[in-house]
Specification:
395 residues, mainly alpha, Glycosyltransferase, globular
């Protein structure tokens, strides 16, 4: 049976491309702009030593590979979704609380826009010279995805208020997925605040991204409170286990949103800001570790994580586990570079710096291993999914 949660496979691939992009962002000089662009890595490759050149090759290859996988999986899922909509199962799906899984579509597509910005910056020469013209277009794209997400969630909310579906009765964090979607839209809308030098663009970016960030927080807090109460009183089964870590990517995306907003407020609008992100990032990472530890304790009963590592779990919800791995790796990179280094606690490129930086790298490698195993199973299963859709259409 197909599920829109398979869009999380595409999301995971896009997220993994970001982990490779951060290698260039934090380890390659990029004077004059907050992110590395084509000219920066070309200059670093020409003037750097063998280690620098190897780093650039690995990072660019990782970005390219996972962006290709992201697009491939996104297109495949849209095709599968089109087939799924022809079935009677889809009509039953629309009358159940599971319909919020459709928000995985704008979630994964928002990652496509982020990936396009990364690819453009790294592989298109002189793109930064016209980037101010691209920021309004990017905001239009993210806002359109936000409207789509709101409409999907409004449909479910309307049905719930009419007593047609029960959104609060499951011992699972699955209903936090809409918050993840809204936060992804928010971080995309916040990008111009961090990158643009045009005041009106920054102001509009701040306004729109704040709306979706606040929406994400409200939904996440309410749905988590309801689901947690159910879990602690009724227990939970294996189907709910992949949702336990959903707060990890939500926290990462929201923290990057607020960092981007802070940059725009300070550097473009010239308003007061402390600019100190050590404590906020420590709070974020601490909360993520708390979620991971207690989620792992709940999974231990079912020996869930070892089975996932061995590739024995093959279903749509398991792809939810890719996002926390990516998100924690990204958060640790920001904590090290925008927290410890920026505060003067750790010297950049010192032995301590590289020891700390090895942690998110190892985590990313482990996540890649799990992702490739899960993707292999999904691609093997796609023929069955297509055949199911075609058989239904023939009937």
């Amino acid at each position: 049976m197909y599920s829109p949660l398979y869009f999380l496979a595409a999301l995971g691939a896009g997220g993994l491309s970001v982990t490779f992009f951060l290698m260039l962002m934090f380890w390659i000089p990029h004077p004059g702009q907050p992110i590395p662009v084509f000219e920066d890595w070309v200059l670093a490759f020409q003037t750097g030593d063998l280690a620098t050149q190897a780093l650039i090759i690995v990072a660019l290859s990782g970005v390219a590979f996972f962006v290709v996988q992201h697009v491939r999986l996104l297109v495949l899922n849209y095709r599968l979704m089109a087939e799924y909509r022809k079935t009677s199962d889809y009509q039953a799906f629309l009358n159940s609380p599971q319909q919020t899984q459709e928000l995985a579509m704008p979630l994964a597509t928002a990652m496509t826009v982020n990936a396009a910005l990364i690819v453009g910056a790294l592989f298109v020469p002189k793109l930064w010279s016209i980037v101010e013209y691209l920021f309004p277009l990017a905001m239009v794209a993210f806002f359109a995805l936000g409207v789509w997400a709101v409409r999907l969630y409004a449909r479910t909310f309307h049905q719930a208020t009419q007593g047609q579906v029960n959104l609060g009765g499951a011992a699972s964090f699955a209903q936090v997925l809409p918050a993840f979607t809204f936060s992804m839209v928010a971080v995309g809308l916040a990008a111009p605040a961090a990158l643009s030098n045009t005041p009106w663009v920054v102001a509009l970016s701040l306004t729109l991204s704040t709306f979706f960030a606040v929406s994400a927080i409200v939904i996440a807090v309410i749905k988590t409170s309801i689901a947690l109460s159910k879990m602690l009183s009724e227990g939970l089964d294996e189907s709910a286990l992949p949702t336990l870590w959903i707060w990890v990517p939500v926290l990462t995306v929201l923290s990057i949103t607020f960092m981007r907003q802070d940059h725009g407020v300070t550097h473009t609008l010239g308003l007061a800001s402390t600019g100190d992100w050590l404590m906020p990032l420590l709070l974020v990472v601490s909360a993520q570790l708390f979620v991971i530890v207690f989620g792992a304790i709940a999974m231990q009963t079912h020996a869930y994580l070892p089975r996932v590592w061995r590739g024995e779990v093959q279903n749509a919800p398991v792809f939810s586990l890719i996002c926390p791995g990516v998100a924690l790796s990204v958060s640790l990179q920001f904590l090290i570079n925008k927290g410890f280094v920026a505060a003067g606690v750790v010297t950049k490129f010192s032995a301590t710096y590289w020891i700390l930086s090895a942690i998110p790298v190892v985590l990313a490698v482990m996540t890649i291993w799990v992702f490739l195993r899960l993707m292999h199973g999904f691609l093997k299963e796609r023929d069955t999914l297509f055949n199911h859709g075609n058989a239904v259409e023939a009937r």
